[in-house]
Design a protein that fits this description.
This protein is α+β, with helices and mostly antiparallel strands. Helices cover 61% and strands 8% of the residues. The protein has a four-stranded antiparallel sheet, with no helix packed on it. Strand 1 and strand 2 (46-52) form a beta hairpin. Helix 3 (148-192) crosses helix 8.
Length: 401
Amino acid sequence: MRHRPFFRWVLTLGVLLFGWSAYLYASYPDTRQIDLTVISEKPDGRCTVRWNDPYSDGGRWRETAYQCGPDRGALLKPPNYDEDTGYGWESGFMFTEGQHKGDLEPSLEDKESYGLSDALVLIGLALIAVGLIGGNIRASIRLAGVRPKTVARARKLYEVADQVARDHAQARHAVRVTWNALRREQIDAKLSAVPVARLFKEASVSRAMQDVEAAGARTARDVLDAGVLGLGHMGMDRSSAEHAHAAARRLADDIEATLSVRVDPTTPGPHTVALLVALQVLLEAGAEAHQTARAGEELATELERALTEAEPASGYRSMLRGSREQREIARSAVTELRSLMAIAEQEGLPARFAQTSVDLLRVPDDRNLGLSARADFESRTSQYYGLLAQVMDPENALAGH
């Protein structure tokens, strides 16, 4: 459940009221203080005053009802202030601009604009204070648990753990690719050694066989490559073409099922060299490379899940945007990340990950057709075949070695 932005609206309302107060105050005309002669005054302060209007023709004297301050000193009230006239004294403010220029400003009790402005500014300041203090308190509570450095360290550990797992998978994939290419090469060699005549046992197709051989298809490999349509273009009828291609297909399946591939380093082809180089990379990385890559894969899986849950804790903005449930999950995830990193550091996994990646990405010596890998294969042949059997799937593993 997401929090409603209550304090944000309180702050906004306070700013609006404060701005309204400032507008009312700024829109009020300018005044200046002048002396007022109090002609008469009642006990509650209602009085009649006289003042000089400098903005009128000739600077005439003017009189009006006014609210004097009833609590001012008795010596300022009539008839005590001026014994000769019996008048009193008061001060007030006169408008110096606008349509009321020269008029006497109403007393504070009558000035609604000033009163409203003062009330608005007080209410606005109170709301602003509540919005700021309440918002900061809520934000501090919501931001508790923000740990960007912890999340960043966990991401870095995830990257090296995931990298070593991918590097090891890539090295094993290279072995599988080169092995399948070598196996396919030897299957093709055997098919290329089988003449077309071995595919036809019926005398009725001898003529068709001669036409196919004359067109260039002399081996079982050529028949498979040409296909039924190609054989028809070579002059063979549809039935004979299908018969020949099916026979070639059965022969290829038999060879593939019974073939025992042998790695011969003495007369190596490009696929043999590539296979030996790929195997040498894994052997040089050591038996621990597999265990390290496995540990990296497992740790990366745990870190990836925890990092996803800890995402709100990676920054202040993301934590503020998250719901209460997301923040609680993030705090728990940060605790889990710390535990995972502590265990990894204790076991020395980051250094092992980095070193294993370097070993798996080491450039092999293939300047002389993999001379180093060929020599290494001859010195520990059984280890090469054992590693090859581990990498390949059971149905593709070597047999007979």
